[in-house]
């Protein structure tokens, strides 16, 4: 090269100027999405998602969808409205799924359609043909209010939200049975372990029952009620080792027919329970649990109660 040749100094390409924000999704939730997240069955209830019964209950064959008997449509809606009002009276924000298929009279049993986590909602895939498809409109409602969907159960998996129950931030009861297969179970387990759940308590739902919340429920951080003969010993043992007192529903009729175990804790030690469960109510109260009784007799015809109709969107 000639010593007189001109040399060019080419600027180096600048380095990265956009650096990642080193926070978790859970930490970002309130800033970017809203005040959502659940990791408890009893922490103070702040927001719920419900489906006020619409046209889907106005003309259906009750035998085809396994209701006990025909319903009084207006009474059915009024009892649902009464529950929503109790939530509001206790400072709980009530959101609704506005749209739904008109051939799905079970759609008010919202707990089956979502399992809420600290990072948002797992949208389920119902096992029964009579429920399949309701989840589409649940996803629509979640998107509308800004609740993130962390997973939709897919492939061959089936999972219903009442097959999961939070014990604490690191512990979840997860069940299989006619409403959840192993594929669906494993999809949910994967998400929970990714979120820091270290203790999965497996539960087998007995033939003839549907979900956990008809057999077991938490009324406070250290008190649960169980339908004793139907909850596996290993589940009871795991809860007792966590310091949880187990109250055995004293009436099999109340546990199975009037769903005395199917209550919702508004806060630790305060639950809403269907009327018609005097023995279960008395036992709860003797153990320091305050009980609000509500007439849910019409909705009970669909074999669901307070817990079944309520998706927790925010606790604590």
Structure description:
By secondary structure, the chain is an alpha/beta fold. It has one domain: L-arginine/glycine Amidinotransferase, Chain A. It contains 7 helices and 15 strands. It has helices at 25-32, 73-89, 134-145, 182-194, 233-241, 252-256, 278-286, and strands at 45-50, 93-96, 114-117, 120-123, 149-152, 164-168, 171-176, 199-204, 216-220, 223-226, 245-248, 264-267, 270-274, 290-294, 311-315. The chain has a 3-stranded mixed β-sheet with strand order 2-1-15, covered by helices on one side. It has a 3-stranded mixed β-sheet with strand order 3-4-5, with helices on both faces. The N and C termini lie far apart (75 Å). The model has no long low-confidence stretch (mean pLDDT 96). This is Amidinotransferase.
Order of helices and strands: HEHEEEHEEEHEEEHEHEEHEE
Give the CATH architecture.
5-stranded Propeller
CATH class: Alpha Beta
Q: What do the pLDDT scores average to?
A: 96
Contiguous low-pLDDT stretches (5 residues minimum) are none
Helical region count?
7
Strand order in space, largest sheet: 2-1-15
Structural class by SSE content: alpha/beta
| Approximate helicity band | 10-25%
Please tell me how large the radius of gyration is. 23 Å
- What's the name of the CATH homologous superfamily? L-arginine/glycine Amidinotransferase, Chain A
CATH-derived topology: L-arginine/glycine Amidinotransferase, Chain A
Main pleated sheet = 3 strands, mixed
Question: How many domains make up the 3D coordinates?
Answer: 1
Assess the beta-strand content as a share of residues. 15-25%
Protein name: Amidinotransferase
Pfam families: DDAH_eukar
Organism: Lutispora saccharofermentans
């Amino acid at each position: 090269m000639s010593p007189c040749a001109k040399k060019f100094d080419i600027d180096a390409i600048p380095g990265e100027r956009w650096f990642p924000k080193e926070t978790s999704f859970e930490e970002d939730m309130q800033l970017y999405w809203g005040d959502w997240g659940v990791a408890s069955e009893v922490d103070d209830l702040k927001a719920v998602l419900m489906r006020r019964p619409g046209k889907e209950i106005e003309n259906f064959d009750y035998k085809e969808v396994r209701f006990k008997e025909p319903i009084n449509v207006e009474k059915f809606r009024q009892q649902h409205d009464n529950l929503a009002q109790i939530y509001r009276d206790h400072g709980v924000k009530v959101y609704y799924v506005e749209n739904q298929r008109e051939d799905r009279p079970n759609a008010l049993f919202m707990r089956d359609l979502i399992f809420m986590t600290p990072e948002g909602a797992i949208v389920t895939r119902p096992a029964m043909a009579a429920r399949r498809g309701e989840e589409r409109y649940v996803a629509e409602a979640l998107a509308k209010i800004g609740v993130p969907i962390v997973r939709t159960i897919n492939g061959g998996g089936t999972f219903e939200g009442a097959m999961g129950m939070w014990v604490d931030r690191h512990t979840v009861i997860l069940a299989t049975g006619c409403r959840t297969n192993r594929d669906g179970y494993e999809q949910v387990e994967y998400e929970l372990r990714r979120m820091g759940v270290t203790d999965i308590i497996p539960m087998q739902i007995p033939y003839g029952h549907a979900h956990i919340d008809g057999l077991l429920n938490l009324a406070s951080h250290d008190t649960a009620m169980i339908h004793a003969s139907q909850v596996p010993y290993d589940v009871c043992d795991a809860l007792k080792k966590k310091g949880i007192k187990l109250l055995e529903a004293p009436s099999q009729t109340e546990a199975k027919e009037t769903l005395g175990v199917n209550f919702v804790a508004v806060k630790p030690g305060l639950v809403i329970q269907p009327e018609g469960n005097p023995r279960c109510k008395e036992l709860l109260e003797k153990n320091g649990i305050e009980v609000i009784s509500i007439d849910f007799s019409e909705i009970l015809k669909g074999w669901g109660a307070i817990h079944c109709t309520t998706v927790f969107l925010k606790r604590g």
